[in-house]
Specification:
Structural class: alpha/beta
Number of helices: 10
Distance between the termini: 43 Å
Radius of gyration: 18 Å
Strand order of the largest sheet: 1-2-4-3-5-6-7-8
Number of strands: 8
Shape: globular
Strand content: 15-25%
Largest sheet: 8 strands, mixed
Helix content: 40-55%
Order of helices and strands: EEEHEHEHEHHHHEHEHH
């Protein structure tokens, strides 16, 4: 597993395949392990980089204080180390926030964005969202990560006991303090006022039964100049594991579309 030190903080990532570059950025409490269904398929035709964000997987140390900007810097440093040029950035939930932030901080590194079950702002608005945040924090503190993992697993994978067990096995390995610090960094983050500055193609992928209302997604999507929306029917928040076949097809179609656009632009420039 390759690694890099960023401001004396070790960071681990995986590298698979050869071809155009894709970066897969996981969600809160997850790791590079949860992208296995995508790595297996995409690495046949692409170079796939899969970081463990700070505080997750093999990247156990957190910057202090922590913000989403630090996660974006982490991904940028990996891309700089690999010297592979602009990449197609794919982010799930927390990973979507990191992808958005990277597109603002280092646009030259981003060929396109695929934002999956994420938002342009995670700052709680309204009493329902604030209560949900309070409950999540309370359960993790008072009942521990083992009980918390069972609660989350049933919400994420209501139709698969096998995926519930897999999720619990992986999730309980999270350091509780690191998990809460990462969650707080996410809850402090918003780029709602900067969305029009994103110029690369953006694919927004939403599960039919995701946490976040589809109307909220459509509202922030209207502020992005070059965005498309795809809804995956019957899926929940962790769609990349729950229904990898449907997600992979959506992602492949997007990547092929970008390749066609790049080819047409290259041919036009050569005439």
């Amino acid at each position: 597993m390759p690694s890099i030190e960023i401001n004396n903080i070790p960071s681990s990532y995986e590298k698979w395949g050869r071809g155009p570059v894709i970066v897969l950025i996981h969600g809160l409490g997850s790791s590079s392990l949860d992208w296995r269904p995508q790595i297996e398929e995409l690495s046949r035709n692409y170079t796939v980089l899969v970081p463990d964000l700070y505080g997750h997987g093999q990247s156990t140390v957190l910057p202090q204080p922590l913000s989403i900007l630090d996660f974006a810097d982490q991904v940028a440093a990996i891309l700089d180390q690999e010297v592979l040029g602009a990449a197609h950035i794919v982010g799930l939930s927390l990973g979507g926030a990191v992808a958005f932030q990277l597109a603002l901080q280092r646009p030259e590194l981003v060929a396109s964005l695929t934002i999956t079950n994420s938002r342009a702002s995670f700052r709680p608005s309204g009493w329902r969202e604030k209560m949900a945040v309070f409950n999540r924090s309370l359960i993790s503190r008072l009942l521990g990560m083992k009980v918390f993992s069972r609660v989350l697993a049933k919400k994420l994978f209501p139709n698969s006991e096998q995926l519930q067990k897999l999720f619990q096995t992986r999730f309980v390995k999270n350091n509780p303090k690191n998990y809460r610090l990462c969650m707080q960094a996410l809850l402090n983050w918003s780029i709602e006022l900067s969305l029009r500055s994103i110029t690369c193609p953006v694919l927004i992928v939403v599960s039919e039964y995701d946490y976040y209302p589809l109307e909220d997604t459509k509202t922030y999507m209207e502020k992005i100049n070059n965005a498309q929306l795809v809804v995956i029917e019957g899926a929940h928040h962790a769609v990349t594991l729950e229904n990898p076949k449907a997600f992979n097809q959506v992602l492949r179609d997007h990547l092929e579309q970008q390749r066609s656009v790049e080819f047409s632009s290259a041919m036009g420039a050569s005439v």
